[in-house]
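Reviewer 2 asked us to include a model.

Predict the structure of this chain.
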Amino acid sequence: MQKILLINKKFLIVTLEIILLLFSLLLIFGPMTSLALWSIADKWFWPNLLPQSIGLDYWRQALGIQKSLAIGAVSIIPAFFLSLMIAVITVITAMSIAIPAGYALAKYKIPFGMFIFFLFLMPNAFPQQPIFVNLLDIFTKIGLAGTIPGVIIVHILVGLVFGVWITSATFRSIPPQLEEAARSVGANGIKTFFRITLPLAAPGLLASSVFVFITSLDEFTGTFFIGLPFVITLPMTLYSSSGYNMQFASVIAIILLLPSMLFMMLIQKVLKAEYVGGMG
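Predicted model (structure tokens):
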């Protein structure tokens, strides 16, 4: 009798585990499957579970291969290259600030260091809409509203959260004994940083750069408030099309999703556990 009860208990546990696994897979892959189907659906009306007609017209239109006013989609190539340019400039500028700031916060006892660190986190520590609304008023007065430089500044403010956070954790994870050993054999501070500290921190700095790049590429709220109506990035195009054209919006969403997936796979390989542990 006890054996039967034990077998039934194990069977119940296994069944629950399978149900939870299937549910998790549905949560993860369900939206992605829906995006993929919508991106190739020429016709898909309720109550059909699958598209009645499929094709690549929306992909060709989005990629600028064909031009047709009938399907209500436009080429996303200008918005894509603009988003890419803004993201690259954001990464270069944000990391130029984050590397020395992260190193100083990790290696030196700076007065009010935690307060300075908190300042870098402020754009994400509070609801973004009030912050960007106030920035819009300031940027309008100084002529940065509706301009690419204004949008880049906003992206830098948002990206510095990941830049400083991960960079500081990376430098903090490097044993100080290695730098002390380099100095003991005659290396000065600059040579120690470039010969010892920077190569050891390279994987974490790469991961930080990737997070900043993805954040900039996907940033919508700041671009919406500061960039409209002249700066149209890929997320802005996605927002404007999502209300009337699900196929076109799905194509844009997949294009935005692919770099994030590829870069997250890269981060998984290069981001060491001690870097993550130093972020707390």
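The longest helix spans residues 2-39. The chain is about 75% helix and 0% strand. We have added this to the supplementary material.
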